[in-house]
Amino acid sequence: MSTHQAGAFLGLWNSISDPRLAREHDTWHSVEHVPERVGLPGFLEARRYRSVDAPLRYFTHYRLDALAALDTPEYRDVFEHPTPWSARMRTVLRDFHRQPCELRGTWGSSSARCIATLCLRADGDALAGPLDNALRQTVLEAGLLSAQWGTARPTSAFPIANQRAEIAGAGQTHVVLLQHPDLARLRQCTQSLLQAIAPLARVETAPEFHEWLTSVSRADLPDAAAGRPPPRTDLFTHFNPGDTP
Questions:
Q1: Percent helix / strand / coil, the chain, rounded to 5
Q2: Where are the alpha helices (DSSP H) in 141-200?
Q3: CA geometry: angle at 37 spanning 223 and 101, to 5°?
Q4: Among 2, 9, 195, 213, which residue's CB has the most CB atoms within a 10 Å radius?
Q5: What band does 116 get if pLDDT is binned at 50, 70 and 90?
Q6: Phi, psi of 42, deg, nearest 5
């Protein structure tokens, strides 16, 4: 795991259209797509998760130097000129949602196999202090192994729009990531946290619970400094014979 201090993160949620595509999606995402992203300037690390409640639902957490990592020529290039495999897989993604966040707080130094993701809406910055204090106390008491949270900072720099309607009205969206190795304990702590902050925040969507699949660090990529890696046309051909360019 990278020890470089992150200043931001990007949370991505998606489902896929057909269970028969799960193996191809997982291979593409873990072997071509995520390493390509992590090799971009300002990207530090990514962790991939699958929902424990919906087997075709995924969450990807990218650690970033700063949100400026999402506004570079290199990042825009991978959107505007996708690999053949990425172009195909875009057509099977469903309920795609992204939240670029300024990192506001981190408690605990370890990672766990289970993660809960929360998207909360609050007026102004009223939630910041109580939320950070609640996370800190829960981690200190070992109710959670680790927790971090950030404030969403959407901009026009993201070429692919979310496929989930944004919550209208005043306020800020805060994304909270909670980790614990025991799923039952994680569910319990998530509900306790929501009850504690209920007077200050409203839940945009129900909490989602995921299990870790894979991770990759920029430091582990052998050719990150050489620029964008070549597409995995060999694997693309394996899954889609006759569809190569």
A1: 35, 30, 35
A2: 183-197
A3: 135
A4: 9
A5: very high
A6: 90, -10
The tokens describing 208, both together, are 């989602």
- H helix intervals, the chain: 22-27, 34-38, 73-80, 84-90, 128-140, 183-197, 233-239
State the amino acid at position 198 in one-letter form: A
Contact 176, 103 (CB under 8 A): no
Q: Is the Cβ–Cβ distance between 84 and 24 less than 8 Å?
A: no
Q: Report residue 214 as tokens.
A: 């894979």
Q: What is the pLDDT of residues 55-82, one digit of tens each?
A: 999 999 999 999 999 999 999 999 899 9
194-245 residue pLDDT tens: 999 999 999 988 999 999 999 999 998 987 677 888 999 999 999 988 654 4
State residue 235 phi and psi, 5-degree precision: -75, -35
Q: What angle do CA 81, 86, 91 make, to 5 degrees?
A: 110
Instruction: Determine the average pLDDT of the residues in 26-43.
Output: 96
pTM: predicted TM-score of the whole model, two decimal places: 0.92
Three-state DSSP state, 50: strand
List 93's β-bridge partners, or say none.
16
Tokens of residue 87, six digits: 């172009």
